[in-house]
Amino acid sequence: MVKTIKKAVLKYAEIQNHSFCNAGCLMCPYSCTSKMFPMGKMKNKLFQKIVAQLAKDFPTLRNISIMLQNEPLLDKNIYEKILFTAKKRDQFKRKFTISTTTNGVCLTKKLLLLLEKSGLDILNISLTPTNNKNKNLSPGINFSKIVEKIKKLPKLKKLKVCLRMVITNQNFDDIIFFVNSKTIKKLQAKNNLKIELSALTNRAGTLKNYSNLNLKFSNLVSPINLKNKVCFEPFHKISILFNGDVLICCHDWKRENILGNVKNQTIKIIWNNSKFKLVRKLLLNNNYLMLIPCKKCSIAKYFLSNKKIK
Ligand code: SF4
C-alpha cells in the first residue's frame, strides 16, 4: 500500500557559488566529476534571485549554505553574497542562519574577520587528520598547516566555527588522536569550536574508492538523520548548482537527477513540481531501487538494510 506523502518543508538550501575546488580529496568525487561536466560560476543576478525567493517564499528555512560540491572561498565575491543574503533575511524578518564549508586552504585571519563582518553565522572547516603514512588522503591540503592557521585565528564575536571530519578506514586513528589532543581542547576553549564527525558516503555511487575507504562500523556515526527511517533529503533540502539546476540532493555529483532549473521557474514551483513529488513518494515507500541515483547510494543501502525498518 502506498503511504501518504508527508508535506515537504524546506529547511535547508545549498547554493553553488561556483563549481571549482583547489584540492583532490580521495573521499570526494570532485577530481573525477570535474572532468565530466561543464564547470562555471553562478552569475550574481542568479544568486540574488535565488536568495530573494528563498527569503520571501520559505519562512520555514533554517539555513542557507553558500557551498555545494566546491571550495566556496575561491570566490572573491563571497562577502557580497553573504551580505546580500543577510540583508534579505532582515528584509523579510527571517531567522535562518548563513553558513559555508571550506577546506581551509584559503583561510586567513583577514578573510575570517571579513566573513564574520559580512554576516556569516557558521563556518564549517573540513579537516582530514592525517599522519605521514596517509598523507595522500587529501592531495592539495597540508593538514598541519591548516591546524596552525586555525590556532592563529582571532577570537570571534558571533561567527561559530565547526571542525568537520569524515571517518575513513585510513584515518580513523588519526581522527581519534586529533579530537582528543591538547590542540583541540585549547581551540575549543578559545573559540567554542564545535566538532562534528560523520561517516563516509559513496556520494550516490560516484566515489570510486568507497569500498577501500569506508570503515565498516562507521554507521555508528550517521551521515544523515536516521530517525526519519527514510532518506529525507529531498523533503527538507534544495541543492542548486551554479547553472541553476536543482539536484535531487547534494550527493548527486553526476547530476543524474535534475528536478528543475531556477533560471526558468521559481523555486516554489520547482519545490512542488511533479518530479519532486514523485521522488518523495518513491523514497517514502522505500523504492530506492526505482530512483536514479538513489539505487547506487550508500545511504539508501543503509535504510534498505536496517533491520528496524520494515
Ligand atoms: S537516497 Fe537518494 S536522495 Fe537520499 S541521499 Fe541518496 S541519492 Fe540522495
TrEMBL record:
Say yes or no: keyword Cell membrane present: no
Which UniProt keywords are present, listed alphabetically? 4Fe-4S, Iron, Iron-sulfur, Metal-binding, S-adenosyl-L-methionine
Q: Which Pfam family is one of those matched by this entry?
A: SPASM
Which cofactors is this protein said to need? [4Fe-4S] cluster
Q: In this protein, which residues make up the domain named Radical SAM core?
A: 5-241
Secretion signal, residue range per the UniProt entry: none
What is a GO molecular function of this protein?
metal ion binding
Q: What is this protein called?
A: Radical SAM core domain-containing protein
